[in-house]
Amino acid sequence: MADTWRSIASRKQEERASRIPHAWLLPSSIDPNRHDVLDVPRESGILSPAELRLTGEYDATALLAGLGSGLLKSVDVVTAFCKRAAIAQQVSNCLTEIFFHDAIARARELDAYFAKTRKPIGPLHGLPISIKDSFQVRGYDASLGVAALCFRPSTSNSALVELLLSLGAVLYCKTNVPLTMMALDSHNNVFGRTLNPADRRLTAGGSSGGEGALVAMRGSILGIGTDVGGSIRVPAYCNGIYGVKPSHGRVPYAGQAIGGPAGSSKLAIESTAGPIGVSVRDCELLLRVISDSDAASRDPDVVSQTWQEQRALSISRSLFVKSQPLRVGIVRTDGHVTPLPPIQHFIDEVAHTLSSHGSRIEVVDLDIGTLGAQCLKAFNGIVSIEGANNWFDLLEKTGEPISPWLSTRLRRRPQKSVNEVRSLQAQRTSLLTQCLDIWHEKGGYWNTSDSRARRGERSVDVIICPAAPHPVPPIDRWNSANYTSMFNLLDWPAAVLPVRKFQERDLRGEVGGAEALNGWDKVNRELWTKVDRAVYVGSPLSVQVVAPRLMERKLVESLAVLEKALEPLREKDLNSKSRL
C-alpha cells in the first residue's frame, strides 16, 4: 500500500530536522509563543558577535566587497548564515531542503581558490544565496510541499542554479511554498505553515513566503523567488523587505519544478524569477550580474542583453539627464477592489512627499479603473487553462487535503479547449496593447490640469500603486491579488519598496457607505470592519513600483531615487511615539 501523506510528511520533517546541527538548536529559554521573533537570533546565544555582525549589519553588496578583497572568508560568512537560517527555521518554519554541510564545504573550496589565485571565482564569489523550493538542486527534492513529489531528488540543476554556481555563489537552503504555489499564504501539508517573524499572527505571504520570512530574519540577505501573480511582491510586502519581479526573459527560469504538465506555462502566464533582499542595491546587483553573464546560453527564453545595453532602451531618459525630472504616475485603485482607508491615506502621503521634491520628481495621477476588472478576468481565465487537474491528481495519490487558503478558491475543472485558450490569449493581446497608453499622456489615463505641459508628449517613467488593497492581513486572510497579478498579465517588471511601519494614526478612517463593488470588495472591507485593527500596528507599509516591459534597469534605478525621496516618511516613522 502506498504511503499516506501523513507518513511522508513525518519522514520529510524528520529529515529536515536532522540536518540542523544540535549545537544550533534554540535553548528552552526562548518563549515559543511570542509574536515577534526577529530578535531571537541575537537572544539565542548561538551566533558569535562576529556572526551577528556578518548577518545583521551587512547587505550582499557589502559582503561581496569583503569577499572579493580577501577581507572576509566565505566559510565564515556561509557558516554564519547557515546558523541564522537554522534559527529562522525553528521560529518561522521557512525552510524545506537544508544543505548546510554542502554549502560550508563549497565555501572552503572557494576560500582555497582565492588563497591560491588571489582572485574571486566570479562576481558572486563566496556569497550565500537562498532559493525557493521550486528550483531544482541536484541531489535534493523539489517537492513543492506535495507528498507525492517527496523523496524524488533532482538529477540536474535548474538553469539559474547552474548560473549562480558558475558566478561563485554558495547555495545553502531552499524555502517553503504554499501547496500548488497558487496561494498567497505559505502553507502545505508536508512542511507546514511559514509564519511572519515580525508578527506570527500575520501572514508571511506566498508563494515565496519561506523566502520572505528567511530574509526578514536575515537568515538570508539575498534570495531568489518566483512570481506568476505576486509571489515575490506579496512576501516582500508582508515582511517589509525588497522584492523585484522582472519581465519574463530577463532571468533564467528553465528547469523549474512547476507541478503542472510540461509546457503548460507557454499557454498561460509565464512565471519569472527575481531577487528578494534587504536593499535596493542588492536587487540591482543580482539583476546586473545575471544580465552580464552567459544566461542566454542556459535558457532559450532569456533576452541576450547586458546591463549597459538595457540603459539605452529607456523610453524616457529622465533618469539619466539631470535637467529632467523623474516622472511618477500614481495609481490609487485598480477599479475592482477599493483600497481600505489606511492604504488610501498612505498612497496620498507618498504622492505628497514625492511632489515636495519640486523639479527633481514630477507626480501625475493615473486613472486605470476601467482596466482592473478586465485584467483580472483575463488573468484568472488564463491561469486556469489546465483546470488544476495535475495538482489534484498528485494530491489524490496520497490522500492529501487542500490547504485552508485554497479550500474555497481552487477546485478541479475541465481543461479549456483550444478555442477557449485562443480567445483568452486574444483578450490578453488586446489588453497588452491598450495598457501601453497608460504610460503616455495622450493615452487618456492621466488626470492632469498642467497647462504648461506640451499636451500629449509626456510619458511617465514608473508607476506607483498599492501592493494590496489592505494592510498585511492575518493568516489566510489575503484578499485580492489583482494589484500584483495585473503586471504579470502585462509582463511589466514590478517591485515592492518598503516605506514605513503602520502606526496608530493609520487606524483612523472608515469604509464609505456605498455598496461594495463586488464580492472581492466586500471581503476586503471586512479586513477593516471585522478585524481587530490593532493587529496591523507595526506591520510594514510598502508601495509597488512598476516600469515598462523589460525595463528592469530603469525600475531598480528608479527605486533608489524613490527610496531616498521617501526618507522623510521613514524618519517620521522612527521618531513617532506610537512606533512599537
Task: Describe the protein in words.
Its EC number is 3.5.1.4. Belongs to the amidase family. This is amidase. The chain has a 12-stranded mixed β-sheet, sandwiched between helices. A two-stranded antiparallel ribbon has the order 4-5. It starts with a helix and ends in a 5-residue tail after the last helix. The protein has 2 domains: 258 residues, Amidase signature (AS) domain (Amidase signature (AS) enzymes, Alpha-Beta Complex), CATH 3.90.1300.10; 195 residues, no CATH class. Helix 8 runs parallel beside helix 9. The longest helix is centred in the N-terminal third of the chain and has 19 residues. The chain has 19 helices and 14 strands. It has 580 residues and is an alpha/beta fold. Helices cover 36% and strands 12% of the residues. The model has no long low-confidence stretch (mean pLDDT 94).
Secondary-structure map with pairings?
Elements (H helix, E strand, L loop, with lengths): L4 H14 L21 H4 L5 H8 L3 H10 L4 H19 L2 E4 L1 H18 L10 E5 L26 H8 L3 E6 L11 E2 L3 E2 L15 H8 L5 E6 L5 H7 L2 E4 L26 E6 L2 H12 L15 H5 L14 E6 L9 H15 L5 E6 L5 H12 L5 H10 L19 H18 L10 E2 L14 E5 L15 H8 L4 E8 L17 H11 L10 E7 L5 H14 L1 H9 L5
Parallel strand pairs: 2-3, 2-6, 9-10, 9-12
Antiparallel strand pairs: 1-3, 4-5, 6-8, 7-8, 7-13, 10-11, 12-14, 13-14
Helix pairs in contact: 3-5, 5-6, 8-9, 10-18, 13-15, 13-16
Pfam family, one: Amidase
EC number: 3.5.1.4
Catalytic activity: a monocarboxylic acid amide + H2O = a monocarboxylate + NH4(+)
